[in-house]
């Protein structure tokens, strides 16, 4: 498998050059994403104020955007911009990590389901269909309402564990389709073992739709986490996340619009960027898929 | 058809039972009592708590509690809501029709606008209309449900028009209105939440429908239709769409979970007295029996939706009709 | 001499793709006379189907009928006709029969509906009238129990029956010209014969002209009165069917004839024309067949041959027309010599 790593890297860089540079909308999306993600990741360095400390709960409460507080202050006199940056850091990391958990679990399950036969296959398939019917938000609400103080690690894992079914179905479909392809039979005829076939031939082909699903999935998780935080069962205050900032700002939305507007805008722009990139990825990789089909 | 239905319904039941099991064990495995909100009230004496525990069967082993619960569910007894002081089934009975009304309107709107948008995009491929609709689609797809609801609420109830700020009916005047007035009042209150749901869901439909249409248009039978002298408009609206609708019907089944999610948030923001509001309230009041029942009901709704989608699909595709 | 029904003049249909311009039809001219069956024969990739689609203006982007092409029909140039008028022509004055009956029929509409649609679109009365007419056509094309069959869906019919439906669709408005694009290729041999018989019977009855496009010389022999041989986006030979089979001139036609297995012969290896059709994005200079031709010489590389007249009604795009002595010295085609096009 070590000899395949440079292969995958060169393939990845080829795709990167091809799909990012080609379409203007995609480039804008990529730039936008970096413009959002980098300041957020560097929040501890870049943020003008502390996100949690309340400097002046009376005097600076709910101030509209000004020179010192570029996006205004919230009802606890905290700087909205700083909270936005820290919140982005949190929301983005949660989304990325949770998606990683999801695609790992999903790929494993999907591969197992695709390779198994008979009763085991039937059982795995049924299980997957059942899991796909469970409304994710409701399940998460049930979990987080019951367990109130989950550390952030657990939060991420639970998000990941409730989101792998789509990936699993995708991977299962791919594995089944690929197994039937001639090049797999040819490899087997030439004496390759099952695991070698899997890692060398099947997995690289499975990677592509999974990466697309992951890109779109990150967007979903951002929105999901925001929703949970908005309902009060996601990230708990005073730690900022884009979702709970909207929750905070929703009471005053008729007058103090900036508290809820900016985090929402941040979410919209970020998710839009992820969606555009995911689409571009899909378009770039599809012709290849047709070539193998 | 009967065999197919029986199979799907039994599959659906298994899913619902599975969900009920998961939720039950989750809630009971969590730290504290299921009734800790009420239980931890120091004003309530220990003896009262004991009595409560006994009456709710909390002193029995977990497995037994589970079986009793499942049996109760099948009998129609979903427990007692401690926050609303009524049997859960009554709470749901009041809330469900409102949610169904809203979901149905959102679904109709989402599909209607979504299909229309996709047709417009395909007929005007590459032109401004296509790009604008595509951009709008993308924007609404990326928007958090609750945020859009908030924006629409603020925009249309205070800045722009004078829509009501929440609820399903006017709390003060409804009873005194005539029949026409009542209808109008209800519509006024339904408008904003329904529009929000439509805006949230049309992009998914539009994207899939557009992809399906583009898939179908290069088909030979489309060329045949053109060769017969059929106008381009009719080629797309009749020949292509009819075939491209088939994958959309499947989408109906898949769209239900997403629709449910959106409905939860939209109901909360607009104060719509449906299941969504009930769920959110029950989070705050830690009313677990209510919450559990809502989650189970949600699953049942999703399963029903996908069964309906399956049935519709089979009716619409003549190739499958005979196989039933 | 009555004027021809259809006159194609210098038709060029090019596809402007990202990887170059594919000149699929590159200067094709021919006529179709009333009541005759003109055959167009050639391998896949020679441009015959694109020619057919061009006549009905069914070419979609990135393909385009280039300027300078004219298709004269009933006093109008189809190339410059406006969309509305073109739609009047399609299915009504000129109609087309496609190759794959299963994919050419819309799977979600009944067969009767699809046939009747042609009549409805061209204003032939109410829905009921159109339906009746459709059933009549289905009867005419030899479909048993047409009333019931009309209410069925394409997947419920056999391949031969579906092809009959396509024929009914093409003839319902009694067009002057029917373009048949490989109408029998997707069918079993026995059904093929039935379909061809049906077509010629209907032609006699209704007086329709047929443009028969095929790669199968057997079909040509059975149905055509005149034949065009296409190669490399051009016509390389035009002759009556007797002349073609008796005294073909162009080396490509010769090759096609020899490639047909004869049941009377017993041979161990089939005759094939060596090499493959070059891609339409890069036609070779001079004669496009020269790499595969057993007679080619220097002139063939330098000079693109025009259509020489061999005799009345017989033309051939080959320099052998002016240097016939070269035919006595066949050699190994270039493509066999080096293993690749030079």
Low-confidence stretches of chain C: none
* Order of secondary-structure elements of chain C: EEEHEEEHEHHHHHEHEHEEHHHEEH
Structural class of chain C: alpha/beta
Question: Main sheet of chain C, how many strands, which sense, barrel?
Answer: 8 strands, mixed
How many DSSP E strands of chain C?
13
CATH level-four homologous superfamily name of the domain at 99-276 in chain B: MetI-like
| Biggest sheet, spatial arrangement of strands of chain B | 1-2
What is the C-alpha radius of gyration of chain B, as a whole number of Å?
Answer: 24 Å
Strand order of the largest sheet of chain C: 7-8-9-3-10-11-13-12
Secondary structure category of chain B? mainly alpha
**Span of the ends, CA to CA of chain B:** 5 Å
Q: What number is the mean pLDDT of chain C?
A: 87
Low-confidence stretches of chain B: none
Can you characterise this structure?
The complex is a heterotrimer of chains A (293), B (324) and C (342). Helices cover 74% and strands 0% of the residues of chain A. Chain A has 293 residues and is mainly alpha-helical. Chain B has a domain at 99-276: MetI-like fold, CATH 1.10.3720.10. Chain B has 13 helices and two strands. In chain B, a hairpin with a 4-residue loop joins strand 1 and strand 2. Chain B is globular, with a radius of gyration of 24 Å. The mean pLDDT of chain B is 80. With 342 residues, chain C is of the alpha/beta class. The interface between A and B is large, with 40 and 50 residues.
Summed up:
The complex is a heterotrimer of chains A (293), B (324) and C (342). Chain A is mainly alpha-helical.
Summarize this structure as a short list of keywords or feature phrases.
heterotrimer, A: 293 residues, mainly alpha, 12 helices, 74% helix, 0% strand, elongated, C: 342 residues, alpha/beta, 8-stranded mixed sheet, 5-stranded antiparallel sheet
What's the structural blueprint in terms of helices and strands?
The complex is a heterotrimer of chains A (293), B (324) and C (342).
Chain A: H1 5-22, H2 24-41, H3 43-46, H4 80-115, H5 118-132, H6 136-146, H7 152-161, H8 165-179, H9 182-189, H10 194-231, H11 242-250, H12 258-292
Chain B: H1 2-29, H2 36-39, H3 46-55, H4 62-75, E1 80-81, E2 86-87, H5 88-123, H6 128-142, H7 145-159, H8 179-216, H9 220-227, H10 232-270, H11 275-284, H12 288-316, H13 318-321
Antiparallel strand pairs in B: 1-2
Helix pairs in contact in B: 1-12, 5-6, 5-8, 5-10, 5-12, 6-8, 7-8, 7-10, 8-10, 9-10, 10-11, 10-12, 11-12
Chain C: E1 6-17, E2 20-32, E3 37-41, H1 48-55, E4 63-65, E5 70-73, E6 76-77, H2 83-89, E7 94-97, H3 101-104, H4 111-121, H5 127-140, H6 146-150, H7 159-171, E8 177-181, H8 189-206, E9 209-214, H9 217-223, E10 226-231, E11 234-240, H10 241-247, H11 251-259, H12 298-302, E12 308-311, E13 314-316, H13 334-338
Parallel strand pairs in C: 3-9, 3-10, 7-8, 8-9
Antiparallel strand pairs in C: 1-2, 1-4, 1-5, 5-6, 10-11, 11-13, 12-13
């Amino acid at each position: 498998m070590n000899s395949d790593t440079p292969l995958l890297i060169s393939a990845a860089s080829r795709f990167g050059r091809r799909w990012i540079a080609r379409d203007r909308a995609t480039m804008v999306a990529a730039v936008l994403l970096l413009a959002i993600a980098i300041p957020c990741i560097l929040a501890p360095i870049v943020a003008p104020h502390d996100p949690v400390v309340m400097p002046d709960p009376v005097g600076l409460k709910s101030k509209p955007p000004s020179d010192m507080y570029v996006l205004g202050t919230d009802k606890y006199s905290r700087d909205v911009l700083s909270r936005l940056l820290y919140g982005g850091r949190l929301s983005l990391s949660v989304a990325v990590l949770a998606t990683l958990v999801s695609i790992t679990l999903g790929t494993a399950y999907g591969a197992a389901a695709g390779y198994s036969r008979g009763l085991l296959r039937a059982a795995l398939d049924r299980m997957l269909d059942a899991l796909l019917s469970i409304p994710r938000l409701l399940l998460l609400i049930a979990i987080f309402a019951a367990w109130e103080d989950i550390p952030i690690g657990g939060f991420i894992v639970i998000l990941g564990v409730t989101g792998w079914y789509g990936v699993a179905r995708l991977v299962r479909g791919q594995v089944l389709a690929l197994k039937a392809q001639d090049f797999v039979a040819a490899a087997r005829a030439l004496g390759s073992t099952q695991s070698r076939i899997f890692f060398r031939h099947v997995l690289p082909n499975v990677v592509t739709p999974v990466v697309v699903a992951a890109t779109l999935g990150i967007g979903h998780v951002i929105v999901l986490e925001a929703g949970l935080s908005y309902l009060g069962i996601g990230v708990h205050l005073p730690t900022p996340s884009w979702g709970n900032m909207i929750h905070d700002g929703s009471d005053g939305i008729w007058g103090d619009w900036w508290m809820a507007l900016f985090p929402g805008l941040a979410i919209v722009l970020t998710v839009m960027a992820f969606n555009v990139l995911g689409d571009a990825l899909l378009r770039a990789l599809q012709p290849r898929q047709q070539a193998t089909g | 058809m009967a065999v197919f239905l029986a199979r799907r319904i039994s599959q659906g039941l298994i899913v619902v039972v599975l969900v009920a099991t998961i939720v039950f064990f989750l809630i009971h495995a969590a730290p504290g009592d299921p009734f800790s909100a009420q239980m931890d009230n120091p004003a309530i004496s220990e003896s009262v708590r004991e009595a409560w525990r006994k009456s709710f069967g909390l002193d029995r082993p977990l497995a037994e509690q589970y079986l009793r619960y499942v049996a109760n569910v099948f009998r129609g007894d979903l427990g007692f809501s401690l926050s609303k002081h009524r049997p859960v089934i009554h709470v749901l009975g009041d809330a469900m029709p409102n949610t169904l009304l809203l979901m149905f309107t959102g679904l109709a709107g989402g599909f209607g606008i979504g299909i229309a948008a996709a047709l417009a995009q395909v007929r005007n491929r590459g032109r401004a209309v296509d790009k604008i609709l595509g951009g709008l689609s993308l924007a609404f797809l990326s928007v958090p449900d609750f945020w859009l609801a908030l924006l629409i609420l603020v925009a249309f109830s205070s800045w722009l028009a004078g829509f009501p700020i929440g609820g399903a009916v006017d709390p003060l005047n409804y009873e005194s209105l005539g029949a026409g007035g009542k209808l109008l009042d209800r519509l006024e209150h339904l408008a904003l939440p329904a529009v929000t749901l439509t805006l949230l869901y049309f992009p998914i439909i539009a994207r899939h429908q557009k992809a399906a249409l583009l898939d179908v248009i290069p088909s030979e039978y489309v060329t045949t239709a053109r060769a017969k002298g059929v106008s381009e408009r009719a080629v797309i609206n009749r020949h292509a769409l009819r075939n491209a609708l088939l994958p959309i019907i499947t989408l109906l089944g898949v769209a239900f979970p997403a629709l449910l999610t959106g409905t939860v948030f939209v109901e909360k923001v607009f104060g719509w007295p449906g299941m969504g509001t009930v769920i959110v309230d029950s989070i705050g009041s830690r009313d677990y029996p209510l919450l559990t029942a809502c989650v189970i009901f949600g699953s049942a709704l999703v399963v029903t939706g996908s069964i309906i989608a399956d049935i519709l699909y089979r009716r619409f595709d003549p190739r499958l009709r005979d196989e039933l | 001499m009555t004027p021809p029904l259809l006159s194609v003049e210098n038709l060029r249909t090019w596809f402007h793709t990202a990887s170059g311009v594919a000149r699929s039809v590159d200067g094709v001219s021919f006529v179709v006379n009333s009541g005759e069956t003109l055959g167009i024969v050639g391998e896949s990739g020679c441009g015959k189907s694109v020619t057919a689609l061009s006549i009905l203006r069914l070419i979609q982007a990135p393909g385009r009928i280039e300027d300078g092409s004219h298709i004269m029909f009933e006093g109008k140039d189809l190339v410059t006709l406006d969309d509305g008028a073109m739609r009047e022509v399609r299915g009504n004055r000129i109609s087309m029969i496609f190759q794959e009956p299963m994919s050419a029929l819309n799977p979600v509409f009944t067969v009767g509906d699809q046939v009747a649609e042609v009549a409805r679109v061209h204003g032939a009365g109410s829905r009921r009238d159109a339906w009746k007419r459709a059933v009549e056509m289905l009867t005419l094309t030899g479909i048993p129990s047409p009333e019931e069959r009309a209410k069925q869906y394409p997947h419920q019919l056999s391949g031969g029956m579906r092809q009959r439906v396509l024929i009914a669709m093409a003839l319902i408005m009694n067009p002057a010209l029917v373009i048949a694009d490989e109408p029998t290729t997707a069918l079993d041999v026995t059904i093929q014969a039935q379909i061809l018989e049906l077509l010629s019977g209907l032609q006699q009855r209704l007086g329709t002209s047929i443009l028969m496009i095929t790669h199968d010389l057997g079909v040509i022999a059975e149905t055509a009165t005149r034949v065009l041989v296409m190669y490399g986006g051009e016509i390389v030979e035009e002759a009556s069917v007797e002349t073609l089979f008796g005294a073909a001139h162009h080396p490509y036609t010769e090759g096609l004839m020899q490639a047909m297995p004869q049941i009377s012969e017993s041979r161990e290896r089939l005759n094939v024309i060596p090499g493959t059709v070059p891609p339409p994005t890069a036609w070779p200079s001079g004669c496009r067949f020269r790499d595969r031709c057993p007679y080619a010489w220097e002139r063939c590389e330098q000079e693109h041959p025009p259509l020489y007249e061999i005799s009345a009604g017989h033309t051939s795009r080959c320099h052998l027309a002016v240097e016939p002595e070269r035919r006595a010295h066949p050699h190994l085609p270039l493509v066999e010599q080096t293993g690749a096009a030079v």
